[in-house]
Amino acid sequence: MMPASTASLEGADSPEGIEPPDEAADDSGVEPSARAARGAFLVILAALTAGVLSLVFGDESAIGPYGLISALPPVYFAAVFAVLATLLYMLRWRREHTLLLAFGTIALVVLVHGSAALVESQARFATAWLHAGFVNSIMTLGEPTPSFDARMSWPGFFTGAGALTGNSGLGVDPVPLLRWAPMVLFACYVPSLLAIGKATLPGWRAPWLGVMVFIFANWVGQDYFAPQTVAYILYLAMVALVLTYLRKCDPGKISAFLTRRSADPPWLFKWLGSMIRAGRREIEPAQRPAGRALIISLILLFGALTVAMVSSHQLTPVVLGVLLGALMVMGRLRAWPLTAVVFVVTLGWLSYGAVAFWTGHLDDIFGGFGQIGSVVDSGVADRIVGSPEHLQVLSIRIYFVMTIFGLAALGAVRLWWSGNRVSVVLLLLMGVPGFLIATQSYGGEGLLRVVYFALVGASFLIASLILPLPRAPRGRVLIAAGLAFCLLFPVFLVARWGNEISESNTTADLQIAQATYDLAPLGSTIGSLAQGGPAAWQDLTLYRGVSLQDGNPFTNVEQVNKLLGENPIGVFIRIAQPQINYLVQNMSVPADYGTTFTEMMVASGQYRIVYQNSSGVVLQRIPKMPAVTGPSAGREATDQVAP
Amino acid sequence: MKSPTPPGLRLAGTLSAAERIRLAYVLIGWSTLSLILVMIDAPTWLRLPIVGLYSLIGVGAAVVLALGIPLDRLALGLAIATGLSSLILFSELVMYTYRFSALLTLVLQVLSVIGLAGSVIWRALPAASRAEQPETAAAERLS
Question: What residues of chain B lie within 8 A of the CB of A308, using their CB?
């Protein structure tokens, strides 16, 4: 078995002299005393404690049109900056203190990506509650129902979450997992991200810095109780595995052809050739040696991870397959058939496991091929609508993305200028997800997914902008980096949590949804005025859910009735504050739209209020015949208001 | 001159064979405890951290250790991914009889423990006796 230190750069006598053989220690930096290590630990612990307590006692109701940032107390910002400063300080040390760096990094994840869970009283994000409903449905019915929702054609995550829920003694109710899932799942990214950093950047400092950058750059909000989050964990682990053990530094066949093409190639080919030769010049970290038995085991493990990923999410395996293909072309993948394995398994699942999805919907899969303009429109242009504050949040997101990728491009340039170095793998990790723009028909979220995947490469390139060489950075470099983090952190908070006013949930919001379930007999129609608020987490397939969102703003009751249709069992409408906030944000309705809508419905004489609290109301269509008794008839919610 | 290895680096692939075996015993104990808690239908507050966490990472850690992957950050990432994948794959296999999924996940735990125990026995064997095998085979071929 080879020690981890063999993962350092090959050849300490390389022309650039980038990395000494021992990655754990070098001659630069300051010697960390035991006192300094204890001090760093105590600072992180104190900051983490203070930050968490400030969030727990924070004011949930202070969440405003710019999102969570208005509910975050000054102590929280001080805590985040203290942890960040300590981590940056540790990069000056001569040796890598793994446990302390890991502790600080996890503390950052808790403070940055656990902040919403700590401030808010209930699990956030309506889609997470819907996913809990999928798990509940599978556990209750004993099988997925692909005809109910396309996502059920990739049920791996939902069944896996069901197994976890069942084993944990939670029965058929995964809701307790929702609240902490974003933070825990984000923490699961960290080891694989570090392994990717170690396999692509020299030394130990830049990989850790890259992870810090990723924590502050990943604003996309895809980290929650969702299939893509778990698939992303698998994606990172598989990329780390490939880069650590199955990489090679010789040019691939296509890339070798490109370099042989001409003795004096055009500048583009010359640049490509230089990237390919970068591997041979031994300026990339070497792959880790392994015996044949271990390599076979790892390939089998890769296969198992592939199958789990393919059955869980439709998009991630495609990104992985294309990335592996690009690595193969650029001479950075030794086990090239893995590319075919990923695509064959993906097509296999699509052909058999997801039949219910693609039958009659082939255009949904291939319809977006080449339609770059429509994808960009649905990803950016169609989303730039709503209230002035929401438009500002959207603008901030766009500028934040441009800043991140601009800094990453500068990182690539700086690597090139400091010794003609270029990290082919990082450029591929950042650039390859861009193909989704041209090939997917994923709707408006497609561009978000592109950013989500590309952030891995971008984060490490930004780290190499700050630390292009493996030696300890100067103090002023770290101070400048720390200031940049501090300046960008509020921007990140607005980008990440800018929709929180419609995506967070209070206990009153939950009571509205629970009252709907209590009052509506099984088989009823339940209309939602818009997306937002907890919903659909139980008996998902046993009710007829109708979204009224696209019909807003309604001007008469018949418009609503037309969308809801008839149902002799019962018709209910759930109106909660997050829904109103969503409509105010995205459709510029007045802030009192919920009240005027309710008054309009009640005044029509066709609907009555059957439940009301500080968040909203539940309306019931007054039956023309005697109403069917509900599963909880006679049970009244605590603060129910009689019509 | 190289500096002494700081404590934080002990996890970075430098665990000795004896430490790895001790770690394997911890995992076996953890798995056994999980089995017992499920069998006695322990309350959720106890099962969620012990059984739930074992399902998430314990199974993967057992696989990683049994395969002999050096223990470092990649191994941790693979352990998490493998744990998640085993949950997904085993629950997929029993999709149509979902009520048995907990039982089958426990079967997975048992399998991982068997693999781990096999790995422990293999590693506990004297290195010399293992090294003799290919030499013996080669000698037989030569004769």
Answer: 84-86, 88-89
